[in-house]
Amino acid sequence: MSLLLKHLMCFTELSSEVILSQCVLFFLVGYDTTSSCLSFAAYNLAMNPQFQDMLAKEIDDKIQPGTKLTYDVVNDMPFLDAVISETLRLYPPVVILERTAREDIFVREFPVKKGTTITIPIYSLHRDPNLFRDPDKFDPSRFHQSTTRVWDS
Ligand code: HEM
Fold first, then answer.
1. Ligand 1 centre from 120 Cα, in Å?
2. How far is ligand 1, taken at its centre, from the CA of residue 103, in Å?
3. By residue range, what is the domain housing residue 101?
């Protein structure tokens, strides 16, 4: 780590304060988002034991005694992926995004003047009944092709 810091300070124009603030930011954005996502995933599974059972089955099928827990093994778990996606939909760790136009542009047919800041309401979009049927319901099958959706059953 000290080698990396020395390199950054000698070969870039970044000051030690900027490097330190970036390290702290990295720690915060990486830690808080991940822990919040995992906590809400555990909560959702506890409240919906049918999905917890489906996930446990997928994990048991994919991980036999002696299986090495690699990135590829975990990546080959579509229901786990759906559980995480549905958790991030219901409880997005980042609830809004902002973008400021650096020049006059059009977003589709809407003119956006240079300097205008646009807010993208992630949380509201994720809970919009026009976009997600029964939006407050935890239903990972929205993101999982081969599972019957709760509202279809
Ligand atoms: C569930 C976990 C995570 C979620 C939901 C998440 C969400 C996001 C979102 C929405 C943005 C875009 C912000 C914007 O453009 O205004 C972002 C950017 C970023 N995230 Fe994450 N993040 C997660 C995990 C992590 C982890 C683990 C790290 C690092 C260890 C990380 C590092 C960053 C960084 C450095 C940026 C800024 C990228 C840039 O400069 O454009 N994130 N993240």
1. 15
2. 25
3. 39-152
